[in-house]
Each structure stands twice: as structure tokens, then as C-alpha cells.
Design goal:
It is built from 14 helices and 21 strands. By secondary structure, the protein is an alpha/beta fold. The relative contact order is 0.18. Bound molecules: zinc ion.
Amino acid sequence: MARTLISGGTIISATGRTTGDVLIEGESVAAILAPGQAASLGVTADRVIDATGKYVVPGGIDVHTHMELPFGGTNASDTFETGTIAAAWGGVTTIVDFAVQKTGENVHESLAAWHEKAAGNCAIDYGFHQIIGGVDEESLKAMTYLVDNEGVTSFKLFMAYPGVFYADDGQILRAMQNASETGAMIMMHAENGIAIDVLVAQSLARGQTDPYFHSLTRPAELEGEATHRAIQLAKVAGNVPLYIVHMSASEALEEVAAAQHAGMNVFAETCPQYLYLSLEDQLMQPGFEGAKWVCSTPLRTKHEHHHRDLWKGLRMNELAVVSTDHCPFCMKDQKELGLGNFSAIPNGIGGVEHRMELLYQGVVNGEITLERWVETCSTTPARMFGLDRKGAIAPGMDADILVWDPTRRTKIGINDKHHMNMDHSAYEGFEIDGKVDTVLSRGTVVVENDTFTGSVGHGRYVKRGLSTYLH
Ligand SMILES: [Zn+2]
């Protein structure tokens, strides 16, 4: 079995840091050795990666991506191939994407369709959540089957997008009751979509068609209200584990914090766009430019406390995970579908390549610690979603490892050759005080020397267990 030694780096875990060597045998971590121990024990390796002066951290896990998602009359522009290669470039070694059952479709068929898109096309490992866009007897049975047989242990419901994905409160309660029986996690897009649709229609009727009205018609109160309602329904359904996706508003964070204080299994994620970008600086750019940043939940105003509160939430573990909600659309022919009508702009921002970098900048800026960076971007995502062999560097775990160089810099943008299949970057011009150095996926080096050395088809489907993060 091939042996690799990552030598001399500072190994960062969710709970601390140590200097030492990581010994990899085949696809797994075999041992962590104290400095000098490899030599004194006579450990030999086929390959030594010198990590002196660098950080050695578990590979990033992005539990919220949408490769090839059909949305708003087009498809997200990254395939599983381009999206997972971009992920690898950004130090990500596992994604969990969403198989999509729209209202009226069959759950099993939708999961099979996502397997077909991904199988043989991924550069890194991948799992699936299942979106339930139509709660009925058949889909409830399917939910149980997926937990028992398919390694799909989390189900996303929508309180937004009436007519496409929307579930009413009764449907939500039934799905939650089902998950309560199997132990599955309910993920929630928490925005009051019925009220939002009224605001959107009123805005368009007034001739307010520019991209930024997307945010003004999705007020923070309606994210807070939906989050509150989801939490109450989860309580009625027997304290089913509930995970609020892509949180952007202080109002929603307060609801989650209160539920956690009451001892409930309520969790939340945010995404880099909600930590760094705003209504004024991005969405309100002149003309149609703001379309680049149309995503749901929307970017919020910088004049309230959303950004500050979300960073605080990350420190306090009110927000347990950072994902990207990677859902890229090009401006040309895709975002342009919404010229003259913001509500027709496909919703989404591409970011799978930049999450580790953007959150590392949070370390440099003093918002979070190195350990918290690892915890929110890898360790907790793995535990939250039952990826039992990932999210930590320890004997027996998959050798998914990111070697990070804190002395180099990263420039983000299309002119700096990002690898996502997009004609623009939501983070154009951002500079990061650090850089991805080497990335290993199950012991195979997939990025080194600023080169992708992996292969499409290396990535495997990972069957997930139940969450091990519950209170
Ligand atoms: Zn999403």
C-alpha cells in the first residue's frame, strides 16, 4: 500500500493544534507522529510532502451545493465535473449536493437522476441530500427508504417558491414526523414564500424591476418568521433535528439561538456571501450588474447588524456550519433571463472554490480562530450529516487533507483564473492572506504546485449515516 508522509506541518483540528507528521497508508490516515518519531521508528514513505511552516487541516466539506441544478428555465452552470474540480482547487474534498424532487415528481426517480449526473464525473467524494418538493404518502415512504437503504439521511423542505418546491405547514409537519421516526435531519429553506410572492408582484406592478428589488421583496422579517415557524413545527414533531440553510438575517439567528437555549436540536449554516457581501455594495450596483448577486436568502443591508451578528453566531456556535449554496449561473444567457424583471433572474451565487479561503480570511481578520475555521468548514459538517470517515485527521479516517500556506496570497476572480464554470465571480478582486498548497483526496494528491493533478471519476458516492451532532 502506498505510503505518504506529510511532514513538519502544524496540524489543526477543531480542538487544537500540534506539530507533527501525518502518515497515510493507501486511502486512510494511519498515524499522527510526533516530530522526529518517523525517523526514530524507521518509518519509510513512498512520498514525503514537506509541510514545514504550513497548516495541515482536514479537507473542506461543503454540505450545500447545486451542480447542474435546473432552476428558473436554465441549469446551474457547473457540472459535477467542473464543480468538483473547482472545489478541489479550493481545498474541498467532499460535497453534499441536493437531489431534487419537484412538486409532482417521484423521489426515487429524482435521486436516480442525480446519481446519473454525478457517477464517474466527480473529482472528489460526494453525497446527496434529498429535496422533497411534494410531500405525500408516496414521498413519505420514499424518505424512510432512502434513510434505510440509500445513505441519504437529510431532507430539504421549502417554505419558499410556491408552485415549485413549496411545502405548506401541514406537509412540513408530516415530513418532520417521518424524520422524527427515522432519525433523519430536516433541512429548511426558511422564508415565507407566500408573503414574498405578494411583495414581488406589487414591486413589479410599480415598475421596480432592477436586481436589488430581489432583496427588498424578501425582507429579513420573513426569514425570521419562517425560521420561528419551522422551529415550532419541529418541536411539535418531537424535537426532530432541524437545520436551517443559508441563514442571512439577524432575526433568524435569534430564533435559532433561542431554540438552542431551550435544548432543541436546531442548527444553522451561513455562507460566505452573507458574511462579506451586501445589498448596497453588490446588489445595488448600476444597471443589471447586481444580478450577479441575486440569491435566496438575499444579501442584506450593511446598515443593520446582519454581518456582525453572523460572525458572532459563528463564534458562539449558533451557526455550526459554513457552506456555499454553490449555485452558479453565468450572466450571459442565464442571469440575463431576468433583464427587466428581477424575479426571473436565476437565484444563485457560485462559491464552492472560495469558501475555505474566505473563511480563512476571517481568521486573519480576528473573527474566528484557526480551530473554528476547521470546525465550521469540515469537522461539524461531517458530524452533522453522518460522514463518519471524514472531517478529522485521525487514524482510520479518510486521508482527505488540505495543506494550507499562510505565507502566500490568493487573488479571487475570473482574471485570476478561477475554475468554476462562470463568466464572472461574486468575489472579484477579493484578496486572501493565505493559499491552498496541496490537497489530498483519500490519499491521492489532487492539487499541488498550482496544478490540478486529480482525475474525474476518482470521487466516490458516500453513503451517509445519521447525524452524530445531536444534543
Ligand atoms: Zn441551496
